[in-house]
Amino acid sequence: MSAIELNNVDISYGDSKVVHGVNLDIAEGESFALVGESGSGKSTILRAIAGLAPDWTGGISVLGRPRTHGIERRVARQVQMVFQDPYGSLHPRKTIDAALSEPLAINGVGNRGERVAAMLMAVGLDQRFRFRFPHQLSGGQRQRVAIARALMLEPKVLLLDEPTSALDVSVQAEILNLLKRLRREQGLTYLLVTHNLPVVSFLCDRLAVMRHGRIVEVADVALLKQGKLVEAYSQELLAATEGIVLVGTPS
Ligand SMILES: Nc1ncnc2c1ncn2[C@@H]1O[C@H](COP(=O)(O)OP(=O)(O)OP(=O)(O)O)[C@@H](O)[C@H]1O
């Protein structure tokens, strides 16, 4: 079954259409990247899938069922978003325990204490962080909390919007390794937005290259690794990132 399917999707902000005729079919368990220049509509696609950019036409299906416009409870449980800036996405006056318990409380899920403790362990955070506040954690630790929060309701799909680009290079590798392990352990599907092609090579199976709100190419990551993307614009992107390597990630 497809985890995410977009069929001829246009997305607008008011009168301004920013995504044009996008088709995507991402399989369950796949890790798929959206790459391309700034402003090409990558984050807008994630937002529409999550229900945060409701002004779209065409078809969006999540785990085989068409979604409606706006926030949908079923989709919110199955599809969670992780943002670039973990500081911005965590409430500064809530402890880590409160941040992780909240989605469980809202959805009436029991055993909250045990679930929070288990999730801290799953994302590699010591239990002593549990009653601390976000400002008492490093950037990488905060992103671990943001990922933990996204996973509390056991979603099937994570929408990852530049999940490592706000972090120091050495910490980026730790978070990428964590995301790789969690996907394997929990059978997750990833749809990842990034500017960083080495991140795509490390974490993804396929990628779509976007420009001016349109997909110009969809390719297997094997072709990216061999430098064999077909379209001229994709080759430009490759050339622009040549020489950039991730520190500390196994190739
Ligand atoms: N809330 C908004 N209201 C109006 N226009 C917006 C809004 N958010 C984004 N846009 C516009 O939509 C277009 C696509 O933006 P989007 O953030 O999806 O691009 P992106 O490819 O994710 O860029 P980046 O890589 O810089 O995050 C841009 O022209 C942007 O200015």
UniProtKB/TrEMBL annotation:
Cited InterPro entries: AAA+_ATPase, ABC_transp_ATP-bind, ABC_transporter-like_ATP-bd, ABC_transporter-like_CS, P-loop_NTPase
Domain spans labelled ABC transporter: 4-237
Origin species: Devosia psychrophila
A Pfam family this chain is assigned to: ABC_tran
GO MF, any single term: ATP hydrolysis activity
Upper classification of the organism: Bacteria, Pseudomonadati, Pseudomonadota, Alphaproteobacteria, Hyphomicrobiales
Protein name: ABC transporter
Alphabetical UniProt keywords: ATP-binding, Nucleotide-binding, Transport
GO process annotations (BP): transmembrane transport
Keyword match Lipoprotein: no
Family membership: Belongs to the ABC transporter superfamily.
